[in-house]
Design goal:
This protein has 130 residues and is mostly beta strands. The chain contains no helices and eleven strands.
């Protein structure tokens, strides 16, 4: 059974850091692009970051650029989201998602839009508050 499990969320003060993990079971992430998304109460889910499968190309939303870093460790079948300089507006439920992009350049692609992703985790809560 294909499964993604997020962990690492919690309560942190503004300016603090957290590292989220997205661990896969039942399949290997080697050929999958991975995205991180978040949804705050009353708001739509938004793409935060993504990473391609082959060359590690990345995307970051403007709101997190320079503060968040996505990385992957295929040996551990895990993708990470390092979040620094956290702000109260980063408070949300964070999800990871996986997909295999189509086309000849699939290994170099990832998507900011949730519509391209096939497999989703259950989410991990991040709360930034003093």
């Amino acid at each position: 059974q294909l499964q993604l499990v997020e962990s690492g969320g919690g309560l942190v003060q503004p300016g603090g850091s957290l590292r989220l993990s997205c661990a896969a079971s039942g399949f290997t992430l080697d050929y999958y692009a991975i995205g991180w998304f978040r949804q705050a109460p009353g708001k739509e889910r938004e793409g935060v970051s993504c990473i391609s499968s082959y060359d590690g190309s990345t995307y970051y939303a403007d709101s997190v650029k320079g503060r968040f870093t996505i990385s992957r460790d295929n040996a551990k079948n895990t993708v990470y989201l390092q979040m620094n300089s956290l702000k109260p507006e980063d408070t949300a439920l964070y999800y990871c998602a996986a997909t295999i992009p189509e086309g000849l350049n699939s290994g170099y692609l990832c998507y900011a839009s949730e519509y391209y992703y096939d497999h989703w985790g259950q989410g991990t809560q991040v709360t930034v508050s003093s």
